[in-house]
## 1
Amino acid sequence: MLDGADHFLSRQADAGYAADVLGPWAVRHVAPLRERTEPLPEGQVEVREASEGGLAQDIRVGPHWLRADEPLTLGGQDSGPTPYGLLAAALGACTSMTVRMYADRQGWPLTRVRVRLSHDKVHAKDGAECESRVGRVDRLERLVRLEGPLTEEQRAQLLRIADLCPVHRTLESKVDVRTRRDDSSTE
């Protein structure tokens, strides 16, 4: 029983709390395979179609499991973030961690970092830093909120540090993606 909540959990805060409490318990019954699978070695990720079919993907990173999917409007079931949502989440997490580590090393009074991101495809001519002026380019916009009694100089330095996070640097560099066929048996 959730104190003060109706039985439909019609308030978003009550529904979110119930999901946070029940989700970890329910996963034992919904996905028993997860408990029997050994964690992947550091640096490896495995993605496979979810058992329900469709576009949903189960993702394994070390001992962690994630789900990716597309929204209903694109043929998915909306059971997880989109691949671009996961990409933006990686950039946001890395940004926050990098800013936090730097502020802690400096002994600065940063109480919380919040990063909000959005992804869009824009016309190349709209991208000021774009080498190609033809077609569309991906744009990730990042809004960083630095909470705490920081000076303006500290805030400016932390924003400069945000641009040095490893995922940001990877996204701005030339990435070499190599695809090979895996002919190993799945049985």
## 2
Amino acid sequence: MPQQLVVTAIGTDRTGIVSKLARLVTDCNCNITDSRMAIFGGEFTFIMLLSGDPPAISRIEHLLPGLGLELDLTTMTKRTSAHQPKPVAARYVLEYTGPDRVGTLGAMTGLLASHQVYIGSLQSQSQLTTDNGPSQMHTQMTLELPEGEQPEQVKAAVMALLAEMNLTGSFHAQS
């Protein structure tokens, strides 16, 4: 029975890191079933979900720290099981833009948590404006509302918080 392993790697960005990590995965006879890569500041970040038989997963757990040392990466692994989707009444996308301020994401995710809304994915980015004004941020989330939660009530609460925080955005059913 295949097992799953989450692998994270963080280190100074340079050419060839993804290639060497992917080669290790292949050499260990594992498969990359999902992955995300981003550059944060000058740091390379990579998250992979691997699958393989128990000896393959054990082998990569054993060999990854050495490759991490060679590539000057901080690595971490955690065994996991297949994602079990929860019963969902509806899926939505929340997108918003506005001045980048401390606490914006915390306020929004706190509101969503109070409505038991599951955040399936989140991407948030801040950028300096060309006119030397305040930084602007853009956030996009995919959300899953649980059975019994009223989408219009969640939307109203989200839109009220966006207005209160001087943000523009949308809350709409996922297509």
## 3
Amino acid sequence: MRGKRKKRKADDLHQDVASVDDSDTSTDTAETDKYTIYKSENYCRQYPEDGGNFEYIVIYESSETRPIGDRDLMSLGASLKRGNKGIKRFKRINKYKIGAIFERPGLANSALYNTKTLKDLHLKASIPALLTETTGVIRNVPTYMSNKNIYNGLSSSRDVVSVRRLMRRGRDEDGKSCLLPTQTVALTFACPTLPDSVDIDSWYFEVSLYIPPVSQCLRCLRYGHIGKFCKNSQKCTICGEEHLYRDCPKDPKEAICVHCSGNHIAISSDCPIKKKKIEENRTKYQKVAYADLFNEKSFPTLNKSKPTDNIKNLLQCDDFVNLLISSIIKIISLNKSDETPVTSAGIKSILLDTFSTNKNRNKLKTT
């Protein structure tokens, strides 16, 4: 079974969907398992037979404690080519993984089930999710529905392989910190493109691309990893020194960000460095259709005018001048304050915030 098909029988569709009526809530799953990620049974990640990718890569890892990078990779590659058809070349990914690139999708899929070769060479094989799956989100899904209920009620033009409700940190009735469910649900599809919408029990839900949050370590405050795997020294989010924020003698209002030197804690969403990381993250996960690569809007128009001419044209636009003046006034106000040091990063952030809001963008478009 490769996921969830588009059509379902009416009996199956309603079998596990929780009723809004309180008298039927006993049909729902137990509260402890209600928001556990629900995955399609017997699903195995594979390349579609009709292709669509330029390369069909299979990731190999060692099934032993010894990393694959410590082995003789030249000999290992020769053994893999003898045991599998269609391998064009290999590439080292890191100490723990290598990739084998196959000529056709069917040959890459067959390598996953070549148990004899995998067992003899002490390897595990998998296909990267980025090339075969994509995740979208739907919103306004009632929180009383479990992930299994949602899966069983789904109707989609793409195979759905997992359902996960997004959670947020909050407090329960006793004031204890806990994870609370939101009305946003992430759906993973067994294809590299998202459908425009899905139905849950005949209700329409628009699907948008899921952008995972930026990883920031709460131990060393760096980006790209989380504290669970961090071996760096502890840093304070308020002052950046090597101690816990609870032990910091400074008031949070006097915080100095270790990334931009701004007047905020290092994990603040107001940090211009974090905003840049979020935008980079969005660009990384935003997928562009092949046809869009040849869309004329994707290419900058040739402009023979000089940069000074462009600046003169901008200064003749009243809306642009007014926005620039408001930014300068805001910068001067910050400079007069002893609590907020003005830096080049802070100035750039103020300018970007002023010109990037929807209202101001629309003003400039109409002029």
